[in-house]
Inverse folding.
C-alpha cells in the first residue's frame, strides 16, 4: 500500500534525524578524546610513537569512509567480531574522526610560537603544567573554527552508515521513499534537516575563524 507524504512522514524523518544527531555526538566525543591523545603524542611523543600515529592518520585519511564502515560491519565478522549496525557505525566514524581531529589539533599545537614554549620553560613549569596553562589554551582558540567546521563533515558523513542498514536520517528517507514513491518531497525534507544541522555549524565555524587570534602569555 502506497502512503501519502504528510506529517507522519515528517515524524518518521525526525526519528531518523535524532539518530543522526546522537551518532554525531557520540562520534565526536570518542573521536575527540582519542584525537587529542594522538595529537599530543604526534607532537611530543617519542619518535617511534610519532611515526606509528602518523601512519595511522595517513592510512585512515587515504581510505574512503565507506570502506572503513564496510570493514567494521562486514570485515570484522570474518574474525568472529559481529557488531550491530549502531556499534559498527559508531566504531567506523570514531576511527575516521580520530584521524582527522588528531591532524587538525596537531597543527594547532604546532602553530603556537616557539617563544611560548620557551617562556613556559623559563618559568620551570612541568610538562603537564606547560600544556595546561600555556600551550593548550592558545591552541584551543586556534582549533575552535576548524573543529566546528569538521563537525559539519561528521553530520554529513553519518549518511554513509545507511548502507549497512543503520536507520539515521538518510536511511529513514530511503525507507520512506519506498513507502510513498515521492522522492522529491522525501529527499527535499531530508535535505532541509541536514541544512538545519549543518548551516549553523558552518556559520559558527566561519565566525570563529575570523575572530581567532593567539595572544602571547605574559
Amino acid at each position: 500500500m502506497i502512503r501519502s507524504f504528510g506529517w507522519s512522514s515528517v515524524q518518521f524523518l525526525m526519528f531518523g534525524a535524532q539518530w543522526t544527531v546522537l551518532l554525531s555526538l557520540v562520534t565526536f566525543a570518542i573521536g575527540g578524546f582519542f584525537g587529542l591523545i594522538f595529537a599530543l603524542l604526534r607532537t611530543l611523543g617519542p619518535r617511534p610513537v610519532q611515526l606509528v600515529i602518523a601512519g595511522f592518520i595517513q592510512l585512515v585519511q587515504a581510505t574512503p569512509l565507506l570502506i572503513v564502515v564496510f570493514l567494521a560491519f562486514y570485515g570484522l565478522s570474518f574474525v568472529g567480531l559481529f557488531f550491530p549496525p549502531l556499534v559498527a557505525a559508531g566504531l567506523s566514524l570514531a576511527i575516521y574522526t580520530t584521524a582527522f581531529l588528531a591532524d587538525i589539533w596537531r597543527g594547532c599545537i604546532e602553530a603556537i610560537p616557539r617563544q611560548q614554549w620557551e617562556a613556559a620553560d623559563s618559568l620551570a613549569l612541568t610538562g603537564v603544567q606547560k600544556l595546561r596553562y600555556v600551550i593548550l589554551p592558545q591552541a584551543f582558540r586556534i582549533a575552535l573554527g576548524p573543529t566546528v567546521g569538521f563537525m559539519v563533515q561528521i553530520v554529513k558523513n553519518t549518511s554513509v552508515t545507511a548502507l549497512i542498514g543503520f536507520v539515521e536520517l538518510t536511511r529513514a528517507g530511503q525507507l520512506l521513499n519506498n513507502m510513498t514513491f515521492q522522492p522529491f518531497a522525501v529527499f527535499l525534507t531530508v535535505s532541509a534537516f541536514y541544512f538545519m544541522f549543518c548551516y549553523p555549524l558552518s556559520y559558527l565555524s566561519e565566525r570563529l575563524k575570523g575572530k581567532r587570534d593567539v595572544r602571547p602569555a605574559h
About this structure: The CA atoms of residues 138 and 215 lie 7 Å apart.
